[in-house]
Amino acid sequence: MANVKRYDNESISSLKGAERVRLRPAVIFGSDDIVGCEHAFFEILSNSIDEAREGYGREIRCKRYADGSIEIEDFGRGIPLDYNSKEERYNWELVYCELYAGGKYNNNDAENYEYSLGLNGLGACATQYASELFDVDVWRDGYHYSLHFEAGENIGGLKKEESSRRETGTRQRFKPDRKVFTETDIPLEYFQRVLKQQAVVNAGIRFSFVDEGTGESFEYLYPEGILAYVEELDGQQGLCEPVLWHCEGEGRDRSDLKDYRVKADIAFCFNNHSPRQEYYHNSSFLEYGGSPDRAVRQAFVAAFDKVLKQRDLYKANESKISYQDIEDSLLIVISSFSTQTSYENQTKKAINNRYIQYLINDFLREQIDLFCIENQAASERILEQLLINKRSRESAEKQRLNVQRKLMGNVDINNRVKKFVDCRSRDINRRELYIVEGDSALGSVKLGRDSDFQAVMTVRGKILNCLKSDYGKIFKNDIITDLIKVLGCGVELEKGGKSSKAQAKKGLDSEFSLDKLRWDKVIICTDADVDGFQIRTLILAMFYRLMPSLIRVGKVYIAESPLYEISYKRGKTEQSYFAYDEREKAILLEELGESHCSIQRSKGLGENEPEMMWQTTMNPQTRRLIQILPEAEADMADVFDLLLGENLAGRKEYIRDYGSMYLEALDLA
Length: 669
Hints:
alpha+beta, six-stranded mixed beta sheet, 21 helices
């Protein structure tokens, strides 16, 4: 009983001060990695955006210094930092040292901010607590106020001096603490993306960024807001001109709650080249959508289904369109604001306001109906495209199911695959599949394996080159389809192409699940000669084309087979050694003494004794496996294209430069 841990009334404790954030940053920032660090920056940026959107200052400047510290400066009213008689404390203590303290709790009454991104009174304090250094400079009321913090602790109190500067505003510079976050080097792309997004949804506010370390600088300004952004993405390639709609309303999420105000701008067009759906609320990017996303899904499906029926464009007994058919061609950006917001959590990546969803849904249904009446030619193009998307999707789904039925059957007594010998174990973490060439190899490997966890399947001769064959030809090949059945994980059919219609005709969809893979290791085992190398390459090409994820996760291996068997005999001692290349052969001959050795070029796998197969190729303790890993996927793609693809000129050049090496290998074989 000496090791029993005590758990009593004194076992409960609470975090205090900066520890509340420094020891548990994920509670506030969503995580303690780079994403959490990025959110700390966004919390400070949000306060400056709120000021600018209320009409105080039209520019926000951001800078990253060479030491990794980040500065954000606005030209708003300046954060009040002096004594607060109502709270009987200094405001700087409330803002930077007290969680859940701020000036944005009465937005519905338009007390300080009507539509605010910062709501919870957490951001400034939490970021200060999570920073190695945090400096504040405020200009307001004819004074310059300054604060300095280190690791969550104030150093020197509030400094206040008269200032002749006419512009009011706030400048905050902080250095994220590596003791709080696992990563603090925020990628430049994050700053570019976020500042551009904020310029888009805060029309007319200029955002600039300077990176002292690289010397790069960027500036973003969208005077026309989300409409200009949609026009930029559309690039005059859409099925209709981008349109901008605006709606406002007042309502409540539940009958017993107060009303709140909502306004929303909606810019959209239909575009097959750059479909995208982006939602923002109070200027925060809603990565996971929520209310506006649900409204768009409901409204667009209902409204366009209604018009399709009115114009009798469905075929007899044809099913209605789905949102997938719409989103494949929909380019839409919604920027909404409300005086009361229900974010899913502090990171503000989704909202759950019911009234916002109902308002946008009802508004969109009405506006889409009017749009189709007033824009006959454009609406005809849109409706035609939606039906193309729908019918292409259904055709692709039918093709996918046909492929699935052919490839995904269980390998059992009712669906026996020829030339496949299973193992006894059902433990996926132990099972190994050896893919060997030829029936003779099947025999020796079958006898040499450990039948408890090693299975064998043979391929007959050189299989189809999957890089130069279309899916129709590939899936008519019995060797390939049998192998896919044995693997059990399905195939990853390529997506994309010139159009969704062409994609559907080819059945370019996927039904792949790594969880359904029946093997821990898939091992290619071929003869150590030129023909064996070519078969190995063709099998690898099949994995690369049809199941690239097996390569990415390291499930595919090559079993090395020895080039030479060296028999050592001296007196009564007789023993066999194996060399896998010329270098190993030379080392063995030197160590054993060449006069006592006889050398034999290894036979094909089918001519090897089962004991030799076990010792050299199948015994986990003595075999040599090469794991296939995509350390450089672009290089891997280039090599496959060079050896087996359409790069004929490159292949000729490669043969010219390196062909002699393969001629030597042929001589050895």
